[in-house]
Each structure stands twice: as C-alpha cells, then as structure tokens.
Amino acid sequence: MTKSVKIIGSIVLAMFIISVIIVIISFRTSDKKTVCIIQDNKVIYTLDLSEEEDRTFRIESSNGGWNDVRIENGKICIYDADCPDQTCVHTGFLRAEGVPIVCLPHRLIIRFADEENK
Predict the structure, then answer these.
(1) Of the candidates 92, 93, 74, 96, the residue with the CA atom closest to the CA atom of residue 30
(2) Is the pTM of this model over 0.70?
(3) pLDDT level of residue 118 (50, 70, 90 thresholds)
C-alpha cells in the first residue's frame, strides 16, 4: 500500500467513527421531562410529563386538520392524525432530544424543552 492510500483510508475510517458517535449521541434516550408543543412557530403548550396525568387531547391546525396527542406513563406521542402520510403517528413516543415528533402538514412539533423554554 502506498502512503496516500493509507492516509485516505485513515481519513475515511475517522469520518465513519465520528458519524457513528454523532448518531449514537442524537438518538440516546432523554431524561428530560418537560416538552414543548409548537405550532406555526409558536409554543402552544409546555408540559412537565412527570406531573401530567394520563390523558388525550386534540390539537387543531389553522388549515382544518388535527392531531390527537396522548400522554401516558410520563411519555407523549401523537396517536392519531388526519394527515395523509401519518409520519407523526408512526414516530411513536418522544424518546430522544435530537428526534422530535413532527407533523409537517399541520406545522406541529413536539420536542423536549430547552432550558430557556421552561
């Protein structure tokens, strides 16, 4: 092997390792319990899941659509929606800080709150 092949191989290996570390960090389970529900870039709810009782509620969008949100055992999810692709429903419970629940048709985001959003 030539010196340039070894250098390129080392660079590729380093980039791969860094990518794996970034993915692991972004998908780790969060210990935060405060979530923000944002619609049309406005925080409409800030909820402390450790204090919330199990319940369901509907969030209606300005375009006439809706998302049904469920809080259960200190976790939150969108369990039903009238959007066509149902991506928000298939996301399941909010687990990781780097992976919010998003419904693009209804411009709705559920994510863990930042320190300044509390």
Answers:
(1) 96
(2) yes
(3) very low
